[in-house]
Amino acid sequence: MKFPRIENAQLNSKRALLRIEGTGILDQNSAIYNPIPLLAVIPTIKFLLQRGASVLILTNTSDKIKPQADELHALIEYFSKELNQNVDYIRDPFAEQALGGGSNKLSQVAVLENLDFYPEERSNKHSFAKKLAKLGDVYVNDARSANGYEYASVVELTKLLPSFIGLGLHQRLLLLKSLMDTQRDKFCLIVGGVNLDKKLSFLSKCVTRVNTILIGGGIAYGFLYSRAIPIGRSLREADLDVPAFQFLEKANFEKVKVALPTDHLLSKSIDADASCKNSSSIPQDWLGVEIGNKTLKRFESLVKKEPLIVWYGPLGVTELDKYSRGSFRLAKTLAKSKGQVFAIGDETCRLIYSTAKHQNYDCLESNSEFVLKVLLDVPLPGIIAIQENESINES
């Protein structure tokens, strides 16, 4: 898998248009609730600055038809703090002299107005890409899910400027492809959370490449039920009983060790004030809200010597602290691992970030949609565009 790399680009005194991921970062009050996508692009920004480029950040923040005004202020504050320098906000980048001031200086950073304000972005208008291209000298793609769409800033722009893959995007593409490499050792997979249908696609893709699968969270109860184990009122997606059973059979055929919870933290309701208990069985009027103590110790023992661990989905109800203590403890355990650890998914990555041990992980990728598309070989227009227009880098 070859891409034009920014390490090979002529960047000194150049203005770099950097496309980043902005979706899934802000809450309804335009405050940052998930900093992981922003954290992931910091190495690329620092690299560009070190090579003498100035950086103009392009992003969109949501799938909403009408974005909120000044949504990007939180991003600007975040980058200012992480980079320890001033970051400008350019509300009208296409106005005459818009870039003629501070943001035109070397080794400086600016965030351009939210691309959601421009309908031409989502309709992939070449004319809009030309307007963007006039703002910079090179283009760098360090986005995630945006690459799955034919946006002007990820497709048409690559036809107009020398275009390169950012450090974070390149790392993730190589890592995800390497997971499926039959020439490398098999890995350990931890899967939790909810949305069993989505997780089954992921598990089915990985089943021939893993040696051990540890299953917790809400999806665990669908697997337990498929084995005729009582789950009380625990989460269950009834239409997936058969697929869950079939997957366990497939894993057994592939000689993959599957560890399901043998005890649980139980509650009668998902409520901060509800009483809870640890038990190896689930009575009819109780529901499982997290893996139990014995299961947690077993999981910690199983991951201890693994050279590569992939974790996708928490082991309990992370919305409430009392039901996420096991996930929190596992996150700290994995932070001490001597092997590589790759975490996937919004909830998983935010939980890891809350432990203040996230820097000990080899890779955090909160955008599970991007991960699944790469693993399932779904064509990504943004990635294809850079590969197809690589020749422009030599012009």
In words, what does this structure look like?
The chain is of the alpha/beta class. The protein has two domains: 181 residues, Rossmann fold, CATH 3.40.50; 182 residues, Rossmann fold (3-Layer(aba) Sandwich), CATH 3.40.50. The longest helix has 15 residues. The chain starts with 14 loop residues before the first strand and ends in a 7-residue tail after the last helix. Helix 9 packs parallel to helix 10. The strands form three sheets. A six-stranded parallel beta sheet has the order 3-4-2-1-5-6, with helices on both faces. About 2% of the residues have low confidence.
Find the structural class using helix and strand composition. alpha/beta
CATH architecture of the largest domain: 3-Layer(aba) Sandwich
Query: What number of domains?
Result: 2
Helix/strand order, N-terminal first: EHEHEEHHEEHEHEHHEEEEHEHEHEHH
CATH superfamily of the largest domain: Phosphoglycerate kinase, N-terminal domain
Rg, alpha carbons: 23 Å
Q: Could you name the ranges where pLDDT drops below 50 across 5 or more consecutive residues?
A: 102-107
Q: Shape, please?
A: elongated
Number of helices: 13
Helicity, as a percent range: 25-40%
Spatial ordering of strands, largest sheet: 3-4-2-1-5-6
Number of strands: 15
Kindly, what is the distance between the CA atoms of the first and last residues, rounded to a whole number of angstroms? 22 Å
Give me the CATH fold name of the largest domain: Rossmann fold
Q: Name the CATH class of the largest domain.
A: Alpha Beta
Q: Beta-sheet strand percentage?
A: 15-25%
Mean pLDDT across all amino acids: 92
